[in-house]
Automatic annotation (TrEMBL):
Molecular function GO labels: (R)-citramalate synthase activity; 2-isopropylmalate synthase activity
SMART domains xref list: LeuA_dimer
Quaternary data: Homodimer.
Record field: catalytic activity: pyruvate + acetyl-CoA + H2O = (3R)-citramalate + CoA + H(+)
Biological source species: Methermicoccus shengliensis
Role according to the record: Catalyzes the condensation of pyruvate and acetyl-coenzyme A to form (R)-citramalate.
PROSITE patterns in the cross-refs: AIPM_HOMOCIT_SYNTH_1 (PS00815), AIPM_HOMOCIT_SYNTH_2 (PS00816), PYR_CT (PS50991)
UniProt keyword annotation of Acyltransferase present: yes
Entry EC number(s): 2.3.3.21
Protein's recorded name: Putative (R)-citramalate synthase CimA
Length: 497
């Protein structure tokens, strides 16, 4: 079988991805994500399910109103009212989903196979009569009778549907079976694959489907979605392009910024060890690895960080070697002798041996201490007041910014959020500083426990980690953020910004 070495991407972050428990996107947020998806070259954007609510229809219309290059799609059941709702949003296409497993037909619909067949064909023709492109999907297709699925796909295409899709709705396919299944179904017509990640096989099964002849993949950014999520866009993109040589038509250098945007707007964090877009994907600590990287980056990096819009990071801890420390010192513009290097390494390993992360701010403080340097604090906290309880959490803050006093207030979802927002409001030009990660650990027990707050912040190309320790979690959080801001400001000053 000769395979076409190209594949189309349907992104369903705004529909299936939004079904992640606890996620609800506003119209503006959907537009922001849709514009970014369009900019990287996604072929089809499933903007939502128009029948859901008037608010959902407004959001879909807002996406349509951006006049994007991508085809804009609405999810529909095999019901004319769903199609009417999609028509009212002026979408380009519908993702018409029909349950095809006997389990779903009998238990959920309480109908039979022929009812599904007749209703599907009727709905396809109705949508086509109203100028819509139709992608007809077999819900729970991985547990359906294959002969029935194939016959339904033939009827759908004969009725005028432009493409068909098999959904592994509960993620029970395995790669070998998937490739075999799609080798058969791709003979019927243009077939897509929609996988879920319940067994962690979403990417493997999606790739296997493409190798079997699927011409389109359904994905979500960061793999978000209900239960264990959907197939991650970034993983499939890199596997198909880098390992199988497919033309994916995507601007992969924007994948990381897309991932961060979706994580921020949905509130669903990306695991540090997540492939491609996780915080640790291009981060190295072990001395032997860093030594190899300095000789040739391909020794321990199968993907070039720049490919997905990332930068290589060297972090320091008890596994750090001389090469790691020297490289980090070089980035700070510091030169050391052997005695000073050994002292710095000893202090780093001491922190690591206590089970603590060595933050960037820790490293700079250690280096400056050993080299007998002093660092000027650009921002100093003078006073912080936070009111919380039955009222909306509110904070007021007084800072000294480069010697000048600044006063500001802020509100938030909690006292820490309010304090950080007040800090942001007090600092002009802070809008381009992003708080990427925030972690809290109790160092000691009891209600007066000492709290350790660890943050990762970024500005332009620089990333800074810092910590604050205090019995008050709000003060620990503000200390950590201020420490990171001061260090980022220092780097800007050294580069003449």
């Amino acid at each position: 079988m000769v395979l076409e070495k190209s594949v189309r991407f349907l992104d369903t972050t705004l529909r299936d991805g939004e079904q992640t428990p606890g996620v609800s996107l506003t119209s503006d947020e959907k537009v922001m994500i849709a514009k970014k998806l369009d900019a990287i070259g996604v072929d089809i954007i499933e903007a939502g399910s128009a029948i859901t609510s008037e608010g959902e229809r407004d959001a879909i219309r807002a996406v349509v109103g951006e006049d994007l290059s991508a085809e804009i799609c609405s999810y529909c059941r095999i019901r004319k009212e769903d199609i009417d709702a999609a028509i009212s949003c002026d979408v380009d296409s519908i993702h018409l989903v029909a349950p095809l497993s006997d389990l779903h037909i009998e238990k959920k619909l309480k109908k039979d196979r022929e009812w599904v067949r007749e209703t599907s064909v009727e709905c396809i023709q109705y949508a086509l009569d109203h100028g819509l492109i139709v992608e007809y999907s077999a819900e729970d297709g991985s547990r359906a009778d294959v002969d029935y699925v194939e016959s339904m796909f033939r009827d759908a295409l004969d009725a005028g549907a432009q493409r068909v899709c098999l959904c592994d709705t509960v993620g029970i396919l395995v790669p070998e079976k998937t490739r075999e299944l799609f080798s058969r179904l791709s003979g019927v017509g243009p077939v897509s694959v929609h996988c879920h990640d319940d067994y962690g096989l979403g990417t493997s099964n999606t790739v296997a489907a493409v190798l079997g002849g699927a011409s389109e993949v359904h994905v979500t950014v960061n793999g978000i979605g209900e239960r264990a999520g959907n197939t991650p866009l970034e993983e499939v993109a890199l596997v198909l392009s880098n390992l199988y040589g497919y033309d994916i038509g995507l601007k992969t250098s924007e994948l990381y910024s897309l991932s961060r945007l979706v994580a921020r707007l949905t509130g669903v964090p990306v695991a540090p060890n997540k492939a491609v877009v996780g915080g640790n994907a291009f981060t190295h600590e072990a001395g032997i690895h860093v030594h190899g990287l300095l000789a040739d980056t391909s020794t321990y990096e199968p993907i070039r960080p720049e490919t997905v819009g990332r930068k290589r990071r060297i972090v320091l801890g008890k596994h750090a070697g001389r090469a790691s420390v020297l490289l980090a010192l070089k980035e700070l513009g510091l030169n050391v002798n052997d005695e000073q290097l050994n002292e710095i390494m000893g202090r780093i390993k001491e922190i690591g041996d206590r089970g603590k992360k060595v933050t960037d701010a820790d490293f700079q403080a250690i280096a400056e201490s050993v080299l007998n340097l002093t660092s000027k604090a650009w921002v100093k906290l003078e006073e912080l007041t936070v009111v919380s309880g039955t009222v909306m959490p509110t904070a007021s803050i007084r800072l000294k910014v480069d010697g000048e006093e600044k006063l500001a207030a802020g509100t938030g979802t909690g006292p820490v959020d309010a304090a950080i927002n007040a800090l942001r409001n007090a600092l002009s030009g802070l809008s381009d500083v992003q708080l990427d990660e925030y972690h809290v650990d109790a160092i000691s027990g009891g209600t007066d426990a000492l709290v350790d707050v660890w943050v990762k912040m970024s500005k332009d190309k620089h990333v800074m980690t810092a910590r604050g320790a205090h019995s008050d979690i709000i003060m620990a959080s503000v200390e950590a953020v201020l420490q990171a801001i001061n260090r980022l400001k220092e780097r800007d000053a050294k580069e003449g910004q």
